[in-house]
Structures are given as structure tokens and as C-alpha cells.
Design goal:
- The protein is an all-alpha fold.
- It folds into 3 domains: about 1-50; about 55-180, no CATH class; about 260-330.
- Helices cover about 70% and strands about 0% of the residues.
- It has helices at about 1-15, 25-35, 40-50, 55-65, 70-85, 90-115, 125-135, 140-150, 200-205, 210-220, 230-330.
- The longest helix has about 100 residues, at about 230-330.
- The radius of gyration is 39 Å and the shape is elongated.
Length: about 325
Amino acid sequence: MMACMDDKALAAIAFELYALPFDDFVAARTAAAKAAVGSGKELHAAVKSLPKPSVAAWAVNMLAIHEPGVLAQLAELGQRMRSAQASFDAAALRELARERRTLLGTAVDTARSVAERRGRTISATIAADVERTLQAMTADESATAAVQSGLLLQALSADGVDTVDLDGAVAVPGAVPAPRATPQLTPKQPPAAAPRQEERTTAERGTRKPADQPRLKAVRETPRPASPSALEKANAALAAAKAAEEESARLAADRQRQLEDTETEVAHLTRETPELRDRLKAAEEQLVRARKSLGTAAAEAKQAARAADKAKRSAMLAQERVLRLGNTRD
């Protein structure tokens, strides 16, 4: 029972820590671990060892906490994509891939906005990691639960509809609800020993429940779903491959743009560096001169103060002498 209570306490502390601004995490974790000492050494050690999330994971956590509706849309889309994949619906997969691109773009923009409100600017590289993580949640129900938990530690990735590797991806795995399995309903079959319809007597028909015949008839007449043909499977696999190819090409184009932007920034800084160094050298020389002037001015001010004090004393002595001479004459 104590272990269960510790797990709940750890989860409660973790939810608070991972909801904080990125730069506040370490100090808050230290304070939380210190406060947990009174609840036992195990809880203290567990809180102290909670990892700091990557910036991308933190941005996704902010999305889960402050804009859960965005993730709910992606989760629902992921369910539809997996259903289309299971039914080998190539046309649906192509349409859903286009819808996912739109939702991912909106979600990344929202993540940027939420992160900025929480004091952190998201670079293009981090935004790409956020997008890859959100794409992964549409491919795997377990990844969906991990992303929506708000306890993510690292960015996720997945190709197509593959299972996502979640090892070490969540701070407190036990706090993440397991994905619910979709129930599969199978129609009840009539008893094997049931007599044929034409062998029943009129009295038996009269005593039979009215709902039995329509139910049995519906069961017998319901056609079994046809297995997908090899061509349908191939078309679905082709659609999934094309969707993955489009996503990869788009990500590659984004990374290329990021590379070009970074190269431009490096070139600009390279051009500015010599000028900045010259300005720094001139400023340092000016600072040295200013310090020398400050020392000279301080010495002159001190000397002037002494001269003023000496002149003041001389004036006082002269005044006293005048007073004495005046009294003597009287």
C-alpha cells in the first residue's frame, strides 16, 4: 500500500514539475526533493532523479497542458489513419495524410506560441522535433498516451504506422494510462443442435419468442466481410509508402531551409566579427584612458580639497588677527 501511495505522490509532484517554465525545472525539482524527505527516502530519491526534459519535449508538454484540444484532434486523426491502414483503404490514407500535414502545421505553430508565453523561444530545429513527435503520436496509441500525459522527456519519431519506441520517453510511466483496446464484437451463432425450421411444429412456433427468428435470420444472412485482395493490400501499402515519402520530403525541405538560414546567419556573424573585435578593442582602449583620467581627476580633486581647506584655515587666522588688532586700537 505504501508503494502505491509513493507512486501517486511521485506522479503528483511530477505533473507539477513538468508543467513549469523550462528554466524553472531544476530549482523546483531540488525544492520538491527536499520537501519529500519527510515522506520517505524512496520518494526523495525518485523526485531528485526526475530527468529534465528536452526543449522539444517540454514544448509538447506545454501543448498537452495548455492546449489539449490540439492533441485531441491529432489523436482522433491517428485512430482514423490506423483504421484505414487496417482496412487497406488506400484512398482514405492519402486523404488522411494531407489532413495530417495541415493539423501538424497548426499544432507546431500553437506549440511555438504556448512556449513563448512561458518564456522560451522555439528554434526551427526544435520545431522540427516537435512536429516529428506529434506525427509519431498519430502512428501509435501508446505514443498518443505518452504525448498527452504532459510527462514527456524526449522527442519521439516513427515512420508510417510503426510502433514508437517509448523506452525512457516518459518521466513516470506508471502515470500514463494504457491505451484502451477497441472491442471486437462477434455475432452469436445459433446452437448446433437446433432443429431445422421445417421440422418445427405449429405449437413450437407459437411458443417461440418473437425476437428469436429475426435475430437468427439476421445472423445467418449477414455476409462475412471479404478478405482484401492482394491488389488492395498492395495499393494500401503504396499509399502508406507515398504518405511517408511526402512527409520525409517535406521534413527534408524544412531541414534544408533551416540549414540555409543557419548558413546565412553564420556568414553575417562572420562579416560582423572583425568589426565587433575592432570596436571592442577601441572600447577597451577608451576604458583604459578613462580609468587613467579618473585617477588623475581623483588626485587633482583631492589636492584641490586640501588647498581649499588650507585657504579656509588661512582666512580664519587672518580674520582673528584683524579682530585682535581692532581690539588693541580701541
